[in-house]
Each structure stands twice: as structure tokens, then as C-alpha cells.
Write a structure and sequence with these properties.
Length: 186
């Protein structure tokens, strides 16, 4: 609502932007009675970890820099009539990395798992390494091919075996020949 109020106050210069903004669903903000600037309103909506999973679309560099400082807020902007999703900010990448490490098994639990395995005899000894056994393979496929018959060096393959291509003639129809002859006589 604050963005729409700001666009209305800026007048006819941003009338097109106002029409576009009105097409989208309007989210209620905490500034009903006393609207603030659009950028301040957007920042207040994503303040507590972006619980509604908002995307921020802006061309304002100041707002974009402030959004990049917050983790988990995707940033959209327009370059030559194309909407572009900005790469994740370093804050967002660090936040995701922290979440992944927190979801893994904590160190004290890893140590207790190793101790339990040692008690049960399931732990692998460092000296004990199993090697893969080589399995017997089949015969070499090249050795299974049929042997080629050798021809005598002085003889060439007989003439019967040679294939000759016959030449095909394109025969012109007799009527066409007659019409050509008549044209020559005239």
C-alpha cells in the first residue's frame, strides 16, 4: 500500500508504473495510517527473516544493497526488457551453509557412534583393508573371430567374382526425337 501511495504522490510521470503495481496483489503492511516511502515499507516487510518468502523487485541501487545484506531475500531487476534474478548474496549463502551444518549430526553424537561401533566390533581397523578380488573374465573377443582365408599372392580374384557396374542409358522417347528432327528440317 505504501508503494502505491508513493506512486500516486509522484504524479503523471510514473502513471504506467502505478498501473503495473495495481495489477499485483496488495499486501497489508503496518503503515496503514501513516504511509512511509516504498523502500522503507519493503524493508520492514522482510525484516524478520522474510517469513512470507517475498521477492524484492527494484531498480533502486540503495534498496538493492540493503536487501543484499539480509539473508534469504531474492532480488529481481530489469535489464533491457528482461527480468533478471540476481545471484544469491554472500549473506544468503552463509545462512544456507549454517543451516546445512546444523542439520548434520553434532560432534558429540559422532564420537558416541564411533565408541558404540568399537564396542560391537563393527569399526574398521586401519591395517585391515579389503581388496577387490579379480574375477576371471571370458576369452579375448578378438581371438574368437573366424580366421580369414588367405589368397595366393600371384593370383588375383577370378573375373567371375569381380562385379562390374553396367552403364544405364537414358533413352529418349521416339516421339520426342521425331519432334526434334522436324524442328531441324524446318
Amino acid at each position: 500500500r505504501c508503494v502505491l501511495k508513493e506512486l500516486e504522490s509522484l504524479g503523471k510521470a510514473l502513471y504506467g508504473a502505478k498501473l503495473i503495481a495495481q495489477r499485483f496483489q496488495v499486501r497489508n503492511c503496518s503503515h496503514h495510517k501513516d504511509p512511509v516511502s516504498g523502500s522503507a515499507c519493503l524493508l520492514s516487510m522482510i525484516e524478520e527473516g522474510n517469513p512470507h518468502h517475498f521477492f524484492i523487485a527494484t531498480q533502486d541501487q540503495d534498496l538493492a544493497n540493503k536487501v543484499k545484506k539480509k539473508a534469504g531475500v531474492p532480488l529481481l531487476f530489469i535489464i533491457q526488457n528482461t527480468m533478471v534474478l540476481d545471484k544469491p548474496s554472500p549473506k544468503s549463502l552463509a545462512f544456507v551453509q549454517k543451516l546445512q551444518t546444523d542439520q548434520l549430526v553434532p560432534e558429540h553424537q559422532k564420537q558416541s557412534i564411533v565408541q558404540l561401533k568399537e564396542k560391537e566390533g563393527l569399526a574398521k581397523q586401519e591395517g585391515e583393508k579389503r581388496r577387490k578380488r579379480k574375477r576371471a573374465g571370458g576369452p579375448n573377443p578378438l581371438s574368437c573371430l573366424k580366421k580369414k582365408k588367405k589368397t595366393q599372392e600371384g593370383q588375383e580374384p577370378s573375373a567371375e567374382k569381380k562385379k562390374r557396374r553396367k552403364r544405364k542409358r537414358n533413352r529418349v522417347k521416339a516421339e520426342a526425337m521425331q519432334s526434334v528432327q522436324k524442328n531441324e528440317e524446318e
